[in-house]
Amino acid sequence: IYYYADVQTTHTVYPDGLETDFLPFLFYIKILSHQTQEIVFSNHTVKCLYSDGLKETFFPEGTIVKVEKDKLVVSSDGQRENHTVWFRRMGYLDGTMKTVFCNSRQGNKYSTERVQIKVEDGNFILDKKS
């Protein structure tokens, strides 16, 4: 156990390889032997950083954010958002899917099978019901 008084941090190394850092009023970090880190913030948000690059954040209300190359946000109510380099897609509970592309075009597909595509000036280039 090490205590760094100048930054008020306690660093503990356990025999099984687990390392922990405790910073009062800020957060708590666990470093596992295979280089996975778990950070617990004072608001009870937990962020996990894995050695393969995956990052997961678990918020107290149940929202989960996963980041690999793309970012997936899953809200506690089941709503999902997928963020990629090319687009951001939101799936709503009523079955609507909204996609915003990197070129500012937007597409909506409703549970009624209606499809709309809108260009950056706000005009529809497609509005049809299947």
What would the keywords be for this entry?
130 residues, mainly beta, lipopolysaccharide transport protein A fold, 2 domains, 15-stranded antiparallel beta sheet, 15 strands, 0% helix
What this model shows, in words?
- This protein folds into 2 domains: 1-76, lipopolysaccharide transport protein A fold (Sandwich), CATH 2.60.450.20; 85-129.
- It has no helices and 15 strands.
- It has strands at 2-4, 9-13, 19-23, 27-31, 37-41, 46-49, 55-58, 64-67, 71-74, 80-83, 87-91, 97-101, 106-109, 114-118, 124-129.
- The chain has a 15-stranded antiparallel sheet, with no helix packed on it.
- The N and C termini lie far apart (66 Å).
- Belongs to the TCP10 family.
- One of its GO terms (molecular function) is tubulin binding.
- One of its GO terms (cellular component) is centrosome.
- This is CENPJ protein.
- Helicity, as a percent range: under 10%
Radius of gyration: 21 Å
Tertiary shape: elongated
Question: Which fold does the CATH topology of the largest domain refer to?
Answer: lipopolysaccharide transport protein A fold
| Main β-sheet, spatial strand arrangement | 1-2-3-4-5-6-7-8-9-10-11-12-13-14-15
Q: What is the CATH architecture descriptor of the largest domain?
A: Sandwich
Structural class: mainly beta
Helix count, DSSP H or I runs of 4 or more residues: 0
Strand content: over 45%
CATH class bucket of the largest domain: Mainly Beta
Family: Belongs to the TCP10 family.
GO cellular component, one term: centriole
GO molecular function, one term: tubulin binding
Protein name: CENPJ protein
